[in-house]
């Protein structure tokens, strides 16, 4: 009945997602001597040590709670600080697919916000990859740093308190995620930083921004395979006998614009687009 | 102007996505002496060797085509064989997020079909991870094997021509994806194969299947954190001056049911659910 | 500067929708001597009399408010009592189209609830049409009656405190709307009440209900042209310079099942469906 | 076994929707001596005369077909001529609700196209209402006229071959529907033609058009209660035992902008919007 710490067994210092019910969910790191409270009774951290994940613990009230390993999406739901609008897992999933992210990849991030996307990128590129994250606001950057520490992925990320519009340090990068209000301002910087053929995803809340970005890419040239997406996630009540979508949903987070950094298209005989 | 083969520069044997326009897209591996045809002219593979990805090549007609590294989503769009309904990237992205897949993970797949999901899992777990894929139909398995070879990920996958309902060989796995018409039949097998707390995603086209699976999980016990999702992907025409959603869309592929394998919930005083 | 009372000009007894801003909206009937309050100041009903609809009135605070004719959708948003889950305008619109409702039509309604759908049907059939509405709960029926009075459409509706499963009084009806948890129980009653070829719409929150209704119609026969719909309404922030969908939306109200009452299908040589 | 012609019983000259199966659907008017063909056999119109709607007729091949009254939505699906992109019933339904259309209403239509919306409006306003429809293209107008004749609603509509941007003849109208690429050009005309408080719906395919219209209304003033909607209609396979959404759907027709014609908003102390 052994097992690896934090993977199979709860040891001191391991993160735990404690689930009483749909709404009573607690995410914390186990510390000897501490107590996790709730309006349904308490549990001593000491009583969690040695438990296997996936097992049940009884609170002081007798109520049962489930002991789980937190996933990134659990952290994002309730274990992290949030100082800004964040990108959601529904969008993160598509970003991973569009950018074709692999372990070992080197990724640029412009606009870190609370660091949710940073975390997702850091997990996907693995210990052999690297994320270079630029953010102009120091308070955001600090929040992102704490969140990355919380999930244990800070060592793969270089957080830079810099305005990426003025340039970035890296070259030959495999992918980029841009989450800022005026992404057209970083197109030249992106073009220099990405390796030829690499993709970038731009996250934009309003359609006017999408229009303007598309027009800017068109005008500048050097971008191809442009796509604009919107991901709608419907969640259903998980009841076998009365299955139905939840009544409300997040109807909008933002649009995802994907494009690949390519060489300027040469002129072509009879070319109407660029003479 | 150097660069790594197949990453920066097209060498013999490298895969190429050749893009003339939205519909004229060709995905192939470069072989000396071969020619890629199209109704807009041809290009000799020899002329591609040495080109940087992201650059343009002129076809015999004078038309220009873009030379790109194919991503998994490009392969899935036109570079792979398809013998079955497949899961789409929009769903793959969410699956990666729900299962919290990391480099190094060991994943079970039941129902391989054409191997599209296998490929996505294999890329996400990296060279240090492993995918164990069970499929009852040998023709499907053969298609999946060829597709895995095409994308160069076969070495991370163990394809097994076996009925998973009768059991699987692995234990302590980190995650599972199940794509079969009667997933309730593998619930006990999954429970044994997954490490405690690990998650599984079930892909199901019809709501009746979702209902039945939810009821079966409820009855059996040992599953928690159940969620039911549907991902809708809207794509927009990428025109800055006339931005609008594409007229038609894939309105349905399937429902995703997520659940975590946990211990049987102990009885509780005053418990209405399990006396 | 004349005009018709309650259409162009506010007279005593006319309904008014008073709009200060997006959230401060008041719907009432004008009564001499009364005052409409708000946290932004008050307006005396006497000051509204004689105003043209579409004009502005100044509150005691100096703030401006718009004086409008309430539409049915305005009433449904804030001018009516609600004792139950209601069907929304997005669904009402499709119901009108599916049932091909015309002025003069005679419509059956089973399951009145708060009477929102009754109101929509009553307006569509006009003064020459008629709505026959059955409801088992007397409290609901009372709410519906008050709501119909509020919008001034009670005279076109016959509210019946009766269990429609036991039969209805009418025959040869042009259409039916059924909003009850077990609509399969009224299929024979509907078949007798509708004229041949007439359509019925069933409103159902859960997919299991839809499945069961479809199976029941299939088994019984006498129904054709069956369709199942779901209407998703996305609303955008009405800002020209930052156009984007509202963040949250009503993701689910219910499914609409449409079917036409036809004759039992005769047996056919080689008929697999009904031997 | 009597009944009213064209309502209950098929008489000469009555319209019939003949349904063999999901795809074999024919919409025609019954004429003595004619024959309706299909790849599954034929039926003589003479054999239809006297049949009740909702009953079955046997084709020459022995196959059965259903005899139904066509609804407007059936006409729009296959019984009308189409020279342009049309508005769909999913949008028509919401338009009826937003405009609060009642029997007797007088409605303005700018941009007639193939007349689909004209037909819907004409049915909703009834014999006592009136639709005034402006269209600059004479070929469109001719198509609309034929379509209105086909459904028997031409007598309620005044088709005008005129550029509405230069003005319309009517005043005090109850509602307007505008389907043209540059609706901002008719805002002054609309303002004069609509009675105070009346609503208008603008149908626009691209978001840029929506942005521009919103900005124009904002700038001009005289419009309030602005709303922007998009209706998504999901259709399900109508099978009780394998219920699932249809694989593809119409993902986009257009955006609906609703606004009410009001008086110019007076200046207000401390008013930031209009000084």
From TrEMBL, chains A, B, C, D:
InterPro entries: SAM-dependent_MTases_sf, TRM61_C, tRNA_MeTrfase_Gcd14. S-adenosyl-L-methionine binds at residues 135, 179. GO terms for molecular function: tRNA (adenine(58)-N1)-methyltransferase activity. It comes from the Archaea. One of its GO terms (cellular component) is tRNA (m1A) methyltransferase complex. Residues 80-239 form the tRNA (adenine(58)-N(1))-methyltransferase catalytic subunit TRM61 C-terminal domain. GO terms for biological process: tRNA methylation. Keywords: Methyltransferase, S-adenosyl-L-methionine, Transferase, tRNA processing. This is Protein methyltransferase. It comes from Pyrodictium occultum. The lineage of its organism: Archaea, Thermoproteota, Thermoprotei, Desulfurococcales, Pyrodictiaceae.
């Amino acid at each position: 009945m052994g097992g690896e710490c934090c993977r199979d067994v709860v040891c001191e210092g391991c993160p735990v997602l404690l689930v009483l019910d749909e709404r009573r969910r607690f995410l914390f790191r186990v510390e000897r001597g501490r107590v996790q409270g709730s309006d349904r009774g308490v549990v001593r951290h000491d009583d969690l040590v040695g438990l296997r994940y996936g097992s049940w613990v009884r609170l002081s009230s007798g109520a049962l709670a489930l002991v789980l390993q937190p996933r990134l999406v659990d952290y994002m739901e309730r274990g992290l600080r949030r100082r800004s609008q964040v990108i959601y897992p529904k969008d993160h999933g598509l970003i991973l697919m569009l950018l074709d992210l692999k372990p070992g990849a080197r990724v640029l991030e412009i606009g870190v916000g609370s660091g949710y996307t940073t975390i997702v990128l850091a997990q996907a590129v693995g210990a052999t990859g690297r994320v270079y994250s630029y953010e102009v606001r120091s308070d955001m950057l600090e929040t992102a740093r704490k969140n990355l520490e919380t999930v244990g992925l800070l060592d793969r990320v270089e957080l830079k308190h810099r305005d990426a519009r003025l340039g970035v340090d890296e070259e030959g990068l495999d992918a980029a995620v841009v989450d800022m209000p005026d992404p057209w301002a970083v197109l030249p910087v992106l073009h220099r930083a990405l390796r030829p053929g690499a993709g970038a995803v731009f996250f934009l809340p309003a359609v006017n921004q999408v229009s303007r970005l598309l027009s800017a890419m068109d005008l500048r040239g050097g971008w191809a395979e442009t796509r604009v997406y919107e991901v709608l996630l419907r969640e259903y009540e998980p009841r076998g006998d009365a299955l139905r979508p939840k009544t409300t949903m997040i109807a909008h987070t933002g649009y995802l614009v994907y494009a690949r950094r390519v060489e300027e298209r040469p002129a072509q005989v009879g070319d109407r687009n660029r003479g």
